[in-house]
Amino acid sequence: MTIAQRINERKIDSLYHFTTIENLFSILEREFIYSRTLIDQLKLTNDGFYTGDYVDHMDPERLDGLRNYINLSLSRPHWYLLNKYSKRPELKHFDWCILQLNTEPLLRPDTLFSVCNAASNAAKNYGIYPGLNAFDNMFKEQVKTPSKTYSRQNLPSHFTTDIQAEVLVKDQISTQNIQTVHLPSEKKLKQYQAAFNLLSLKSDLFAVNEPLFTAPILK
Q1: How much is the pLDDT for 29?
Q2: Is the confidence at residue 49, as pLDDT, over 70?
Q3: Positive or negative: CA dihedral 204, 209, 212, 217
């Protein structure tokens, strides 16, 4: 069995990554989603791109220690973390978007899998590894964390057992992997489509999906 076969077996068709609209400017201009390490390197080049304005204090400590990896969630957004970040006083004035990507990054040999939030103590106990076994662990019958035990009861096959499970992709992901850029309202859609069009940045990927921003998808 391979990860590709398991993806097909579980009918997994998407990954999710949330960011601010300000960061999306840089992502679409450079045509890549970059890890924290690469963003910091690009900022030093002062090459005229939007990277210098990149919002870099969403997770400045990176408690998982994996600064050269991009954090994604599988089949549904990591809503709890998005909600946490969007309520921070220093981040409340930013608008957010959710990027839906295809599953190609799952097939990379250096992609890592965590059964829960990669920055948590529980993740350290379970381990964060590449490969099929680590991928399968995200779908364990039970995942125990200090605060809760998660079960697969009534979950569809393409959902991870813990909604906060993470896929960590090394270095960069091409914007060609982006299927849709989700926004929370029609007003935001029109506002940012116009702005991105004026800057000759791609805006035909934009769509409205309010439920993704209002509550976690639990089943």
Answers
A1: 87
A2: no
A3: negative
For strand 166-170 and strand 149-151, is the pairing parallel, antiparallel, or unpaired?
Answer: unpaired
Cα–Cα distance, 160 to 179 (Å, whole number): 21
Q: Which pLDDT band, with edges at 50, 70 and 90, does 65 fall under? A: confident
Instruction: Check: CB of residue 32 under 8 Å from CB of residue 17.
Output: no
Q: Are strands 206-208 and 178-183 parallel, antiparallel or unpaired?
A: parallel
Q: How far apart are CA 24 and CA 196, in angstroms?
A: 10
Q: Which of 198, 160, 202 is nearest to 181 (CA)?
A: 202
Q: Is 141 exposed, middle or buried (0-12, 13-18, 19+ CB in 10 A)?
A: exposed
Q: Is residue 177 within 8 Å of residue 104, measured between CB atoms?
A: yes
Tell me the one-letter amino acid at 160: T
- In this predicted structure, what is the pLDDT of residue 62? 47
Whether pTM exceeds 0.85 = yes
Helical segments of the chain, H only: 3-10, 21-30, 36-43, 79-86, 121-126, 132-137, 186-198, 210-214
